[in-house]
Amino acid sequence: MNRSILKLAIPNIISNITVPLLGLVDMMLMGHRSSPVYIGAIALGGTIFSVLYSFFSFLRAGTTGFTAQSLGAKDFSEISFSLYRSATIAILAFIFIICIQEPIARISLVLLDGSDEVKSLAITYFFIRIWAAPANMLLYCLNGWFIGMQNTRIPMIIAIVINVLNIVFSVFLVLIMHQDVAGVALGTVIAQYCGLATALIFLFIKYRHFLIKIDIHILLDINKIKRFFKVNTDLMIRSILLVLTIAFFTNQSARLGDNILSVNMILLQFFYIFSYFTDGFAYAGEALVGKFIGSRDSDSLNSVVKHLFKWGMIISIPFSIIYAIFPTTFVTIISNNPVIISEVRPYYIYMVVIPVITFAAFLWDGIYIGATASKAIRNTMIISSIIVFLPLWYILMPLFGNHGLWIAFLGFMLARGVSMTVSAKRSILQLPKNQ
Q1: Residues of 267-283 as b/e, b for ≥16 C-beta within 10 angstroms?
Q2: Of 42, 48, 40, 49, which is closest to residue 26 (Cα–Cα)?
Q3: Res. 431 pLDDT band, cuts 50 70 90
Q4: Greatest CA span in the chain, whole angstroms?
């Protein structure tokens, strides 16, 4: 089981490592400028896209779950149509987004806090990066399908291509062409289309035999469509609440001033670094759990869950230790602004506790997605965001300022892990013995 997990997890970890590296490079490119407004601008601009794409991130997660279960059940026609249905929704989604980009920008300006200069730069970033939406949506579908097919090497290659090229283009456009936030946004757009081209090449070369003729009756099978939308609506609600919580955290950070916004965005990079690392095992969980549920293999299902959590402990403790020993070193890599470095020191403790508090939530996410246990993952997110996070924020932030905001956020992540642990036996682990 460990070999099966690592075979899937290691490529995901390698590809995920490139994601925070991209975030770090973007922060470094903006963080070494004279004003903190540039960090704040890409933070707010990135928040807009995080919220926007949260509406459609089910395209990856749902596709993985349905594909893995179809593979386990050896339903080869449904393997193909899992991709077709997801891609159809993706095409409609990105057409819709492109058409309403102006209202999205106006609403974002109203909802997001920050100085006028930060908002102006963030909107510049938005109107350039929005043209990556078509590539981004289709990549959700393709990467989800590849993972469901128990192949994480292709998504690894795609992620490396996207993020390495993104770094190269951003560095060139910012340092050579002097384009500040516009260069960072344009680098993202170009890299996303390079990644989509890479994904399509792999699909046509390696999985050509799954590209069967589209039968409109199968594609629009009413029962399959109902299940597709039921699961994906729940996953969409879960993703929206997750991203809205992080967006709310960012927005409240902005209300505390440009310096605190920069401090919190820097600290969140270390949250993302750990999350992307742990997500390597979560994605392995998606693929294996979906496969074992599809084949009705209860023993392997229980085994993979136990092994995943052993790996979670193995990962989280060293991360906390490293963060505790070298906090200033990591922060100065992102920004050499002496004001920011000084203001971040009181908040090092949150960097240290992030791994041990959050790893369970990340792993359960993958397990629930693979099981397409969408109702449970939706309900636990509602509990964690609305019943736990918001009351903690309301009570603690007025008393403790930014410390209260961080405690509320970590309480939210802890609640996710605990609530999914409590719900797991009923929602996932009760299958008939091997059939």
Answers
A1: bbbbbbbbbbbbbbbbb
A2: 42
A3: low
A4: 65
Q: What is the pLDDT of residues 247-261, one digit of tens each?
A: 899 889 988 988 898
Q: Are 134 and 200 in contact (CB under 8 A)?
A: no
pLDDT of residue 433: 44
> What's the angle, vertex CA 286, arms to CA 291 and CA 25, rounded to 5?
145
| Residue whose token pair is 């936030």 | 181
**Per-position DSSP letters for 406-424, written without gaps between them:** HHHHHHHHHHHHHHHHHHH
What's the token pair of residue 240?
């929206």
> What span, in angstroms and rounded, lies between the C-alpha atoms of 37 and 242?
25
CA distances to 38, 91, 258, 347 from 137, rounded to whole Å, are 27, 8, 32, 36
Exposure string of 104-130, with b = 16+ CB inside 10 Å and e = fewer, is beeebbeebebbeebbebbbbbbebbb
Structure tokens at 114: 């920050």
Kindly report the number of other CB atoms within 10 A of residue 220's CB atom. 12
